[in-house]
Write a structure and sequence with these properties.
The protein is an alpha/beta fold. It contains eleven helices and seven strands.
Length: about 290
């Protein structure tokens, strides 16, 4: 019933977005190019299909973002080979994810044994099922959160104490944090005075470990003309920073397209959004959340 209610709400929201202002109906979302011009889903896909990697930065509980994700993947798959990957799956979940995709195990085993997010059924299951049905690889790119938590408390040097078995779940160590990365600059400004007794430097190192892990996972799985479509929270890739910074160092010649997502009360383009990505998905702030 919860899933049915969610889809009814989503379909209703999408229908509102197409009724137009003449009826006084609020629009659900708009897609903008960097220059502020509106774009359709197809126009966005046609530009991004030329990229080696697509970073789809989402708001985790936004139904429009998740609907656009599966629509983008379906459209791209008509003419391109794809690999999918996501922040929402940690590296130590790869085996069980692979077993589900291959049909070796059933869905209930995936749900019991992988660290799935609470909104998996509504938001990420469509992507995984698409990969399963179409024999598309799906990469668990994120670092196990227990190690990011360790770094947030003690700094990245604490990773040296891990066993060799544990380190196999990490990207190559050590890693550096680029002080000029716009994402970490923003993070430091937002957290100034709000670290709740924790070191801001360590918290940024933990964020960087996630970004580095995702970038390393993408770099290791790039293949020729195959497009790697990656799903992550918008903060991890907006402003062409975060994951992008590490991926550019690991694979300098890789072309990357960035989609950023945000919410707004009126959907009118703001010049401050220009730096966020190649495309910016703006959703009405009254949109129903998925969890």
């Amino acid at each position: 019933m919860r899933i049915l209610t969610f889809f009814i709400a989503t379909i209703t929201a999408l229908s509102l977005s197409y009724k137009g202002k003449s009826q006084g109906i609020t629009q659900a979302f708009k897609i903008y190019r960097q220059n502020g011009k509106e774009a359709s889903i197809k126009e966005m896909a046609d530009v991004l299909t030329k990229m080696d990697v697509i970073m789809f930065g989402e708001m985790h509980n936004n139904p429009i973002d998740h609907w656009l994700q599966i629509e983008l993947v379906k459209y791209l798959a008509k003419k391109n080979d794809l690999i999918l990957g996501a922040e929402m799956f940690e590296r130590d979940d790869q085996l069980v994810l692979n077993e589900y995709l291959s049909g070796t195990i059933k869905l209930d085993h995936l749900k019991k044994e992988a660290k799935l997010w609470p909104n998996y059924d509504t938001d990420y299951s469509p992507l995984v099922e698409f990969a399963k049905e179409n024999h598309v690889e799906f990469i668990a790119t994120n670092v196990p959160r227990r190690y990011a938590s360790l770094v947030s408390r003690e700094g990245q040097l604490a990773l040296d104490s891990l066993s060799d078995e544990a380190k196999r779940l990490l990207p190559p160590l050590p890693y550096s944090v680029d002080s000029n990365d716009l994402g970490y600059i923003d993070m430091r400004e937002m957290m100034s005075g709000h670290g709740h007794g924790m070191s801001i430097d360590y918290l940024i190192e933990a964020q960087a470990l996630k970004d580095y892990s995702m970038a390393s996972s993408i770099a290791q799985n790039l293949k020729g003309d195959v497009i790697f479509v990656h799903f992550n929270g918008s903060f991890h890739s907006q402003k062409f920073a975060g994951i992008n910074t590490y991926l550019k160092k690991l694979k300098p010649n890789t072309s990357i397209g960035v989609i950023a997502s945000l919410e707004s009360d009126d959907l009118i383009f703001n010049d401050e959004w220009k730096e966020l990505g190649d495309f910016i998905i703006v959703t009405n702030s009254i949109m129903t959340k998925t969890h």
